[in-house]
Amino acid sequence: MERENLWAPWRIKYVQGLDQECDCFICHDSQNSQDDDKNLVLWRTDKSIVILNRFPYNNGHLLIAPIRHIPDLDQANDDELLELTKLVRESQKALSLTIKPHGFNVGMNFGRCAGAGLPEHFHIHVVPRWDGDTNFINVCSDTDVISQSLTELLEQLKQTSKENNLPGL
Questions:
Q1: N or C: which end of the chain has fewer CB within 10 A?
Q2: Where are the domains of the chain?
Q3: Topology of domain 9-163, per CATH?
Q4: Per residue in 70-108, pLDDT tens?
Q5: Which residues pair with 126 in a beta bridge?
Q6: Residue 86 CB: number of other CB atoms within 10 A?
Q7: Diameter of the chain measured on Cα atoms
Q8: Terminal-residue alpha carbon distance, the chain
């Protein structure tokens, strides 16, 4: 049987970085506000940051993290936890207004064995979902199809945020 190839050259940065000791991209992005567009930062507050995932499972996949470099929920204080929860709500609202998903997956992974790509800085995944978005391509080949550029979506989400006074913290 002949094998088919689906080229995804943008994934090489992720694959090459798996075994490398590197700086925390969340800390890097939270400390460099002048590069927010380049770093795909949607929102930032005193305690939190919302970033488009560079390696998304679906269009609009956001990461919500505390600014503080902490690995677990038990190290977050009540103010951080409240703000993170509010940002999940506001993220769902912005995504709903902008790209109109049918639902969401919201989750966290603690530890590399649980799927955490950055186990030392906890973050929340907000993944928009559509009816039928699990199709043959990702079922058969473990491949995700992302239908929009991250920079285009970032601009749309910023416009939606401005028009709707988001995040509403």
A1: N
A2: 9-163
A3: HIT family, subunit A (3.30.428)
A4: 999 999 999 999 999 999 999 999 999 999 999 999 999
A5: 62, 106
A6: 16
A7: 56
A8: 55
